[in-house]
Amino acid sequence: MNTPSHEPSLTPIQHKIHIAFRILLIILTGVAGMLFVKELLFPTYAFHFRSAIDSLANTISRPYITEFGTTFDVAATGDFTEATINITLPKNAEPLPQNTKLSTRHSYLAFLTSIDAEKYTDHLITTYEIDGVHYIDRDNVLYPFLSDNIFDSYFFAQNTVIPAESAVELLARTAPKDVQGFASGSLIKSQDGVFVIDGTTKHPFQDELSVTALGYKFDNVRESTGDERALHEKARMFDTSSTHPFGTIFWARDAQRMYLYDQDQLHKIEPSIRAKEHAIIVDEASRTTFNVCTLSRNLLRPRTYSCTISLSQIAPFPGNIYQFMIDTPHVAIDESHITFSTAPTHASLSQRISFIKKELRKYYSQKNE
After folding, report:
1. Are 189 and 222 in contact (CB under 8 A)?
2. 139-152 pLDDT, tens per residue?
3. Quick check: 101 pLDDT over 50?
4. Which has the closest alpha carbon to 103: 282, 287, 294?
5. Which pLDDT value is given to residue 43?
6. How many angstroms separate the first and last alpha carbons of the chain?
7. What is the C-alpha to C-alpha distance for residues 18 and 11, in angstroms, rounded to an integer?
8. Neighbours of 224 (CB within 10 A)
């Protein structure tokens, strides 16, 4: 004989509490879902600096002094519309002057360095082709290029073809063992990935995003042999926060001007068609266009100052670095926190959905390989 089951009965008050908890659970689930979708479609990115910890653990650079004041850099890639900055001074530090301004600009760190006023010709090299072999003349010593592929990476070679019978004295100046490697700034690849040449070293890229974040194009990546790569020692990995190596060529599309980055300075050079094809695209206006906000003192934490700055003018410029400047020199910073965000607009939504689709296609294509 089956005994009928009885569900526990609820009092009217318990029933109301049960309904209230169910409604609250539905609301919390809905809010959590909305926050998840918002973060997926309009993500925020947070960066920090703490003076007490090792610099490698910081995602904001250690402050330094420039002509604009106390300066620090953040490597951030994305379509951002604003940034919120919080700065905390050390204990017993003098408060910041009233109406202290904080400004920011956006480009590549190498392109934000000073411009050399002197005429620059170090990129112009003398080369000879003798009996099908290319040589570079450095300080009256000839160094053979290991291959035509390496010779082709030099965009400013002033080459002269000399018959072998007329080059006996010239060849007597050939270095006995040394050979010439790829030009600095060249992109090469192997089965291990893509590398950028930096003098006698080569830097592997962490991932595809690191390549594109620094303005490089995969169309400019060269095939290379093991012997060619062996001329360059493997060095530290490049990521989205890295600075371009000396020898990098920039093409300012707004000014139609070419620059070469060398010895921590930019040098204006005469453009060439091949150099322009391989140059990093920039805007000269990114050097002089700033967004500005006024730092406000926190009433509850008097050592902390904050402001929210629009990025509308500078975000469209090519670059991987946002450079922030406090218009007061020698400001000691104990901690700083910066959050980048994107306003929920139709344009930003379309860009984000397009990015998500691209990443999903990439994921499934790699999974099916």
Report:
1. yes
2. 999 999 999 999 99
3. yes
4. 294
5. 74
6. 62
7. 10
8. 24
Query: How does pLDDT run across 198-257, given as a tens digit for each residue?
Result: 999 999 999 999 999 999 999 999 999 999 999 999 999 999 999 999 999 999 999 999
The residues pairing with 103 across neighbouring beta strands, listed in sequence order, are: 292, 325
Amino acid present at 106: H
Give residue-wise pLDDT tens across range 276-301.
Answer: 999 999 999 999 999 999 999 999 99
What's the burial of 137, exposed, middle or buried (CB within 10 Å: 0-12/13-18/19+)? Answer: middle
> Which of 215, 205, 218 has the alpha carbon at shortest distance from 251?
215
Burial of residue 254 (CB within 10 Å: 0-12, 13-18, 19+) is exposed
Closest by CA to 201, choosing from 156, 176, 231, 244, is 231
pTM: 0.83
For the chain, what is the mean pLDDT? 89
Structure tokens at 75: 């490597």
Q: Can you tell me whether residue 314 is helix, strand or coil?
A: coil
Please state, in angstroms and rounded to a whole number, the distance separating the CA atoms of residues 244 and 278. Answer: 14
For residue 186, give both structure tokens. 């060249």
User: Rounded to 5 degrees, what angle do the CA atoms 214, 216, 221 make?
Assistant: 140
Structure tokens at 202: 């080569």
Phi/psi-derived region of residue 246, left when phi > 0, alpha when psi is between -120 and 50, beta in every other case: beta
Residue found under tokens 């009965």:
9
The neighbour count for residue 248, using CB atoms within 10 Å, is 26
Rounded CA-CA distance 137/126 in Å is: 6
Round to whole Å and give the CA distance between 317 and 280.
Answer: 12
What would the DSSP string read from start to end of 104-166? EEEE-GGGGSPBP-S---TT-EEEEEETTEEEEEETTEEEEBS-HHHHTT-TTEEEEEE-GGG
Say how many C-beta atoms besides its own lie within 10 A of residue 121's C-beta: 11
Q: Which of 291, 289, 271 is nearest to 281 (CA)?
A: 271
